[in-house]
Structures are given as structure tokens and as C-alpha cells.
Write a structure and sequence with these properties.
alpha/beta, 267 residues
């Protein structure tokens, strides 16, 4: 019997888009770096993807490993690291199957919790994170609540979800890649299930060269929607204690107006 795996769209041309354009770690990188430096090393960047945060940490001399479910994203990370003279330890594993040789003082997960669309996998993944921490270690992650995202919130209404799936947008602006080809990405919502609190979306990636379409890929991703208190319960059930919630990435107290929350949980 096949084990259910996460549904994410970070493969193929989508992974290439991340590698070429998502290279600025932004305020997330600074936030999680401070957490790593405060909570201790070694650390794990869970869901490191193409290395948006991980490579910055390695350049700064931090002892951080990388892990991601998408082998395509890890291949892009490895290629970027090679160009920058870095040698990261990378692991291709899903969060719910995490089985690494080291134990960490800090695990950070940026943009990871809720991806994949299966609550059971998230529950298992949180437990795996707990098991991979040293005593007193910290697990930190961010989460974008849907209440300040009007399209996501309104999509739950019957008149909106019963009209799904959306039609594909006819076209989008193309991004120039390093090899001179052009990449076009568009997304659509396929299904919304407010009872299960999940949303399914698709990404269509088209590769163009000299005005000719040479490749098209469609990838599907499911999201789980959580409230603050459900995430607290999941962390407590996994064994975590001393849980803090911050609003945004600047150590602010969480408020309903924040579009991102940062959770810190201690083993």
C-alpha cells in the first residue's frame, strides 16, 4: 500500500523559477537567522528548497543542513551552492518521514507548514521534528493565516467554490531566464473544501524560446488551512512546550492584523 505523499508544485520548471528569481531571503532570512543564532547550532532548514535561506546561512558560517521533499528544488540548490563555492549537506525527505543522522538545536521551516494538504502528514511531521531536536531545542516556523487574504477567504463561500475549477488565465508576463529562454507561470484554484479546510491549486509553467512554446508543465498543490489555536494544539500533541507566537518577522506580539505568524516551540 502506497503511503500518501504531499501534493506540492515545486517541481520541474517551477523549481527552476525559484532558483533563478527567489534569491533574496528578505525579512524571513533575518528572522530565522536570529532564531538559529539564539537557539543554537547545528540547525536544520526544513523545506530549504533552492536554498533561498540556507545558502545565506552557510555564507555566514552557520552550521545548517538542508532538507526538502522536492528533488528538483534540491538539485537547483546544489547547483547554486556549487557556483558559490559552498558544500551543503542536503537531504531529500518529506517532513513526515524525516530520518536524518544528526540531532539539532534548532529546526526552522519557512513556508512549509500547511503545504501538502494532509493533516495527518503534518501531525506526523511535527512529531518527527520534535524527535530530531536535542533536549531544549527550538522548532520555529511561519504560517500565513487566511483571514487577511480576501480571495482565499471568499473562496469558501458556496457561490464561489461551486464555480470551481477556475479557467486558466490566457497568458502572463514572461520572465527571462539565464539561458535566454522565457518562463511563463499562471495559477488557478481547482477546489476549496471548507469542511476539511483545504484548498487545491494548480500552477502551469510554459517555457518559450524565440517566441516558440517548447515545454508545458502543470503541477498541483494542496494547502491546509489552520487557525492559531489548532496549531498550538498540534504542537502540544507532538510534545512541544514553551510555545511563543510572534506577529510578522520582527519580534512583534501577534495581532489579527498580521499576515504572517511565527511560532517558536521548545522541546
Amino acid at each position: 500500500m502506497n503511503t500518501k505523499q504531499p501534493d506540492v508544485w515545486h517541481h520541474g520548471l517551477v523549481a527552476r523559477e525559484w532558483a533563478e528569481f527567489a534569491i533574496d531571503g528578505g525579512e524571513e532570512a533575518l528572522c530565522f537567522r536570529k532564531i538559529i543564532e539564539t537557539s543554537g547550532q547545528p540547525a536544520l532548514d526544513l523545506g530549504c528548497g533552492s536554498g533561498r535561506l540556507l545558502l545565506l546561512y552557510l555564507q555566514a558560517g552557520l552550521d545548517v543542513d538542508g532538507c526538502d521533499y522536492s528533488r528538483d528544488m534540491l538539485a537547483q540548490c546544489q547547483e547554486r551552492a556549487k557556483r558559490e563555492g559552498l558544500s551543503p549537506r542536503l537531504y531529500a525527505q518529506a517532513m513526515h518521514e524525516l530520518d536524518l543522522p544528526r540531532r539539532y538545536r534548532t529546526i526552522v521551516a519557512c513556508g512549509v507548514i500547511g503545504l501538502g494538504g494532509e493533516r495527518d502528514l503534518t501531525r506526523k511531521g511535527l512529531r518527527r521534528c520534535y524527535e530530531h531536536l536535542r533536549p531544549g531545542g527550538t522548532f520555529a516556523f511561519d504560517f500565513a493565516p487566511r483571514w487577511n487574504d480576501p480571495p482565499a477567504w471568499l473562496s469558501r463561500l458556496p457561490e464561489n467554490r461551486h464555480s470551481l475549477p477556475e479557467e486558466w488565465p490566457s497568458s502572463a508576463e514572461r520572465q527571462l531566464l539565464a539561458d535566454g529562454s522565457e518562463l511563463e507561470l499562471v495559477a488557478r484554484t481547482v477546489a476549496v473544501d471548507p469542511l476539511e479546510e483545504t484548498q487545491t491549486r494548480q500552477m502551469r509553467a510554459r517555457l518559450w524560446r524565440n517566441g516558440e512554446l517548447i515545454e508545458e508543465q502543470i503541477h498541483t498543490q494542496r494547502y491546509e488551512e489552520y487557525g492559531k489555536n489548532e496549531l498550538l494544539l498540534l504542537l502540544e500533541r507532538a510534545g512541544f512546550d514553551d510555545i511563543q507566537i510572534r506577529g510578522g518577522y520582527n519580534d512583534e506580539p501577534a495581532t489579527p492584523d498580521h499576515t504572517s505568524l511565527v511560532f517558536l516551540a521548545r522541546k
